[in-house]
Automatic annotation (TrEMBL), chain A:
Alphabetical keyword list: Cytoplasm, Molybdenum cofactor biosynthesis, Nucleotide-binding, Phosphoprotein
Function: Acts as a sulfur carrier required for molybdopterin biosynthesis. Component of the molybdopterin synthase complex that catalyzes the conversion of precursor Z into molybdopterin by mediating the incorporation of 2 sulfur atoms into precursor Z to generate a dithiolene group. In the complex, serves as sulfur donor by being thiocarboxylated (-COSH) at its C-terminus by MOCS3. After interaction with MOCS2B, the sulfur is then transferred to precursor Z to form molybdopterin.
Entries under HAMAP family matching the protein: MOCS2A
Residues with 1-thioglycine modification: 105
Name of the protein described by the UniProt record: Molybdopterin synthase sulfur carrier subunit
Automatic annotation (TrEMBL), chain B:
Pathway assigned in UniProt: Cofactor biosynthesis; molybdopterin biosynthesis
Record-stated family: Belongs to the MoaE family. MOCS2B subfamily.
UniProt-listed Enzyme Commission number(s): 2.8.1.12
Lineage of the species this protein comes from: Eukaryota, Viridiplantae, Streptophyta, Embryophyta, Tracheophyta
The species this protein was found in: Salvia splendens
Gene Ontology biological-process entries: Mo-molybdopterin cofactor biosynthetic process
Keyword Membrane: no
Catalytic activity, reaction form: 2 [molybdopterin-synthase sulfur-carrier protein]-C-terminal-Gly-aminoethanethioate + cyclic pyranopterin phosphate + H2O = molybdopterin + 2 [molybdopterin-synthase sulfur-carrier protein]-C-terminal Gly-Gly + 2 H(+)
Protein name in UniProt: Molybdopterin synthase catalytic subunit
Amino acid sequence: MSTNSFESLSKKMDNAVGGKDDAFIKVKVLFFARARDLTGMADMSLEVSLGTTAHDCLNKLISKFPGLEEIRNCMVLALNEEYALESVVVKDRDELAIIPPISGG
Amino acid sequence: MAAEEEGMNLIEILEENVAIDMSKYMSYVQSPSCGAIATFGGTTRDTFEGKTVLELRYEAYVPMAVRCIKTICTSARSSWNLNSIAVAHRLGPVPVGETSVFIATSAVHRGDALNACKFIIDEVKASVPIWKKEVCTNGEVWKENSEFLERRDELGNSSCRKNVVEGMDQRERVAAEER
């Protein structure tokens, strides 16, 4: 399915479940270490609909960058510089970091 | 360099190719009131599982790393009677024999200084968003701390976490803050 038809289908689905029209927010995503190797970028802007969770953001990122699947089960997420559960709802201009297993010290 | 000085904690994440000046941190924590200074230095060693290591290369999510180290210092202070704490971590390449992380604690008594020092390095390895790549003669690999892997499931629930209390009622919120 092309990106355009996916987005229009997604909007129809939002309408069907009573979601807000055109209520999109932008989240800044940071990729570190192995995550950066796998995506080829250090950061990007992710547009998602209002009410999206960190878990949903992650799924969207994995669909864009299937290579991230490699670290899916051992990574953690941080939202605005604090570790976060995947169930947390992201807000406009939040900073979501993909944290592969750390190795400081 | 990202530096944070709060009360008597000094936290520094050093830019690439800036070496750790241990005497600076020892001077920082030293005080006439203290009978003990404890230190830990982590150094790049030349072998890992039979492979020859050339260097380690570090990167960090710097603002979050500073926050996490602050939290660790607060936690150390709640367990031990400490005077000062200094934590420094390098970024970029750290060749064999050089120090990548340095911790100094001072206290009236040595038990507090030594125990806090050990606690702090253990916590850094478990929770601070810093990564190292091991560069060997035959390739490079991102390392993973076992301390992190053991702690991973708890991290979203730790004091370092985003306060996910939207939707929780007041009673639950108070309980969460007290944990």
